[in-house]
Amino acid sequence: MITDFFTVQSVIGLFAITLAIYYTVLRFREHRSIQQLGGNAPQVHGWLPFSIDLILRSIYLSRNYRDLEFWEFVFRTCRKGKPADTAEIRLADQRFLFTADPENIKGKGEGFLHDWEEFLGHSIFTTDGEEWAKSRQLLRPQFVKTRVRDLDIFEKHVQQLLFLLDGQGKEVDISELFYGYTLDAATEFLLGRSVGSLGNADSQFAHAFGEVQRIQNIRTRAGPLQRFVPLREFRKGLRVMDSFIEPFVQDALRHSPEELDEKKAKSTGGTTWLHSVAEFTRDRKVIRDQIVSILLAGRDTTAGTLSFLFKELSSRPGTYRKLRQEILEKLGPHKAPTYEDLKAMPYLQHCINETLRIYPILPFNMRVPLKDTTLPRGGGPDGLSPIGVKKDTVVGFATVYLQRNPAQYPPVSAQFPPVMEFSPERWEKWTPRPWQYIPFSGGPRICIGQQFALTEIGYTAVRIVQRFDRMEKYWGIGDDEVKSEIVLSPAHGVKVGFFSTEK
Hints:
By secondary structure, the protein is an alpha+beta fold. The chain has helices at residues 2-37, 52-63, 67-78, 102-106, 117-120, 129-139, 145-148, 152-165, 174-191, 203-222, 232-253, 257-266, 273-280, 284-314, 317-331, 339-343, 346-358, 399-404, 450-467, and strands at residues 43-44, 86-91, 94-99, 172-173, 364-367, 373-379, 385-389, 394-398, 470-473, 482-484, 488-490, 495-499. The chain has a 5-stranded mixed beta sheet. Strands 4-12-9 form a 3-stranded antiparallel beta sheet. Strands 6-7 form a two-stranded antiparallel ribbon. A hairpin with a 3-residue loop joins strand 10 (482-484) and strand 11 (488-490). The radius of gyration is 25 Å and the shape is globular.
């Protein structure tokens, strides 16, 4: 028995030693490859095995609407208090890079994290190479200038929104209304018909969509521990989403490719994006995936930006009055703006730009390089040396940290207020450097719907401010927390009231 006992212990010990040697060799080879490519970034180490405490810290801060604190902690810790905007962490056996350096963001990898596929499937957000190019090509015709200039699609939804805003000072959560409004506009513009959610919100879909994003955010932050994240509510939410989307899938497949060609030839107003998808594929799963990506891009991003814009305007009566004066001088109290009118109102554009500067649509993002590569800087004692990046290394980048970093801006002065102060006037004489202001990302993956989003934001803002003499904020201390599960949004809505002397 004793012999057997020692034999078992010997086998276990030998296995452990062999495993340790194996991983040591792997780490040595990885380290050598990284040094050949450039070098390491300054590292942050956890105090628990495999740096599990860093994963738990990230999840805790995110669930308490303090996501940015984790990035600040990483950059502050990696150089022991010295300025830094690129760092690396090893979680379990995986290397992760974090950067808010514009030069590194410009050169980031083009791959996407494939653990998002259960939510977004094989859509424009989760594919690479030829498959990504095809998804982008599907969207491109919908966002040509002639389509973006057609503002009638917004007007009927805006009129319903204005009715719900009352004008007699009633408290409304304008953020919630914006989510319904943008969903209606997006489904009509891209899918051919509005779902009529504004004022009669499909609460099941809205709740499910939000819950799926919340859990997807936790999965991403859990990194190598994501297998331990409970997914029951996640998959329940996906089923609700899919039942909401199914009628659109059926619409897409109702016509044969030949019928769609004939429909396109006879159409004077152009076919919808959904028709283009049906011509591209008859695969229900692919159509579903493309629709989910469109709903995320067309609903959440624009609604979030409008929510932040009116949250800032509600606490700055002088800014609201100045914007209203510009609108009334250009359009009067009733005329709907044209695309050219929107571009000809500089203060309106400054207000939108300032909102997107402080509250970029996608605050954090991640990519993985498709091959071994190098980030231009962040390594070495001075932070100016290149960093080696092996294929499939996760590279996280923080647009919100970049755009709020005082080091990226001129010194504070009478002409340039502090970075976190909402000041549209700063844009009158200041122009950001390339890759310093990237709310819609940049490079090949710049948001294809950028102009559509900016046009919808501008048009909606104009019609609201044009109608109401003033607005009052009903949100208070504690209501200014920001949620960044995927898209940036106010954590507790935006409760305001509007006042109008016009009956």
